[in-house]
Amino acid sequence: MNQSPQPKAPTRGVAELLDALVASDGTGAHPHVRSGALSSGPEAMRNLADAVHFLCLLHGRHPGVIDNAARKAVDPASRRWMDEAADAFVEERAFLSKIASAVGPVPSTQGQAQCEAAVAAQRKALDMLAESDRHGCALGAAIALTLDWRTIRVLLDISALRLDLVPPTCTLPDLPGTARLAAAVADTPAIERAMVFGAQQLITQHSGLWDLMAARAASRAHS
Q1: Does the residue 5 lie in any domain?
Q2: How many domains, the chain?
Q3: pLDDT in tens, 153-168
Q4: Rounded to two decimals, what is the model's pTM?
Q5: For 29, which DSSP code?
Q6: Is 141 domain-assigned?
Q7: Is position 201 within any domain?
Q8: Which of 21, 61, 159, 207 has the smallest set of CB atoms within 10 Å of its CB?
Q9: What is the pLDDT of residues 12-63, one digit of tens each?
């Protein structure tokens, strides 16, 4: 007796995979961010100041993730997206530095030197990721950064407004264009896997940064 074939569940495209990764494991999903420690309460400004200074250590120098990844982009579509993202991130770094200058020194926290060394190691890991020769890996990392930065940017805007600074318009590539690029580049399973891997590693480093920020906030609360 013949059986009709069972319909296959639709396979998610790489853009959906990247969106889901950032939504589930990115900055917006981290307990330290979700707790309101950076947006409300008497310690919010100190916690924000701490985050701003450590974000400067991770992403404030040039070349960064996107700049390094751009050197790996070979097709015209990737080049255009990388150029747009790199130009936008110049403005994001300048905004980050402006907030860091206005917010004052890093909040005094036990283990400062060890914390800075940990973030320096994260920065090195991101540099290696963005310079990977595995086709799609660097692009996946760069895309994940632009996606997760949208949540980080909300935190930066909160900091700026509390310091009477006017946040500039964020000009990172829009979401539909980024999704189209991801789908166009991931034309083989191997490239798709590399893109997802690059994105996962970038998000892992961001998660590690927020783990560190949470530990520092807890240390200050108990000192």
Answers
A1: no
A2: 1
A3: 999 999 999 999 999 9
A4: 0.93
A5: G
A6: yes
A7: yes
A8: 61
A9: 799 999 999 999 999 999 999 999 999 988 999 999 999 999 999 999 999 9
